[in-house]
């Protein structure tokens, strides 16, 4: 494991993927917040009162346009969609997380052809499309400046390999990096993709799926929170405590060292990188 020591006077350990939360949880971090380690206490104190603004930039394809109920009010739909995603993050504190609508783009047919990989009628290959979307975004610096996360909204059925029930895919901890992208399925009228969007934003911010390593036993997928692959209980609109802690320690440690508040997530990350 690698370590760094800025602000906090103890040793900070990260696992091989640079994940602080995984190390802390394996060492017995209290999920209910009681008896926190000295590192946790320092982090919570340093992050108190700070707000992280995560800007979403939506790309929309033709299949989404065809399903959109009120096409002249697409902006209003996206604003409401973003607010619905934000509601899923309301329990995250120290720092608080605000999901904001930063930009949108209707893809042309040429852009769609460049980005989307359609497997068969009505089905979109999520992983291959994700790769092409990342490459497309990398070639548009203005998009990178405007957003922390880029979400492709599609009316097609998003698949992950042979799994056609996922509704969305993204890169783990990809926010603010060249892999700040996600693909989400939505119908443009019932907000059916809100949970999938919240799931992918959380994944980009450092939350793994419940029931997977390194926290497979602490928060099993059967509990049905947002980060379960198929959330189907009354908890489906909430994050498990494992997800909350993983996100908090993935972005919170760095944000806590940025003196100004509020801070845009990627701007704050950039200032951290400039210091080192």
From TrEMBL:
<dbReference type="GO" id="GO:0004222">
    <property type="term" value="F:metalloendopeptidase activity"/>
</dbReference>
<dbReference type="GO" id="GO:0006509">
    <property type="term" value="P:membrane protein ectodomain proteolysis"/>
</dbReference>
<protein>
    <submittedName>
        <fullName>Putative tick metalloprotease</fullName>
    </submittedName>
</protein>
<keyword id="KW-0645">Protease</keyword>
<dbReference type="InterPro" id="IPR001590">
    <property type="entry name" value="Peptidase_M12B"/>
</dbReference>
<feature type="domain" description="Peptidase M12B">
    <location>
        <begin position="52"/>
        <end position="243"/>
    </location>
</feature>
<keyword id="KW-0378">Hydrolase</keyword>
<dbReference type="Pfam" id="PF01421">
    <property type="entry name" value="Reprolysin"/>
</dbReference>
<keyword id="KW-0482">Metalloprotease</keyword>
<dbReference type="InterPro" id="IPR024079">
    <property type="entry name" value="MetalloPept_cat_dom_sf"/>
</dbReference>
<keyword id="KW-0862">Zinc</keyword>
């Amino acid at each position: 494991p690698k370590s760094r020591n800025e602000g906090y006077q103890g040793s900070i350990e990260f696992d091989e993927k640079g994940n602080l939360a995984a190390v802390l949880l394996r060492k017995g971090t209290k999920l209910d917040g009681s008896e926190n380690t000295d590192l946790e206490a320092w982090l919570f104190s340093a992050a108190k009162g700070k707000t992280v603004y995560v800007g979403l930039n939506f790309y929309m394809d033709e299949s989404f346009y065809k399903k959109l109920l009120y096409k002249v009010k697409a902006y209003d739909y996206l604003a409401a969609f973003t607010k619905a995603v934000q509601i899923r993050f309301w329990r995250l504190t120290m720092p608080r997380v605000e999901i904001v609508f930063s930009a949108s783009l209707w893809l042309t047919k040429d852009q769609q052809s460049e980005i989307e990989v359609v497997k068969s009628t009505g089905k979109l290959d999520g992983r291959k499309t994700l790769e092409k979307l990342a490459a497309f975004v990398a070639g548009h610096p203005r998009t990178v400046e405007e957003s922390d996360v880029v979400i492709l909204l599609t009316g097609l059925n998003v698949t992950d390999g042979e799994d056609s029930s996922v509704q969305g895919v993204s890169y783990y901890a990809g926010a603010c990096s060249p892999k700040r992208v996600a693909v989400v399925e939505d119908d443009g009228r019932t907000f059916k993709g809100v949970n999938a969007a919240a799931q992918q934003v959380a994944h980009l911010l450092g939350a793994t799926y419940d029931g997977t390593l390194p926290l497979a036993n602490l928060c099993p997928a059967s509990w049905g929170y947002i980060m379960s692959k198929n959330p189907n209980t009354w908890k489906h609109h909430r994050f498990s405590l494992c997800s909350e802690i993983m996100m908090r320690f993935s972005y919170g440690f760095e944000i806590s060292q940025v003196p100004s508040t509020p801070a845009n997530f990627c701007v704050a990350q950039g200032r951290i990188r400039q210091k080192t």
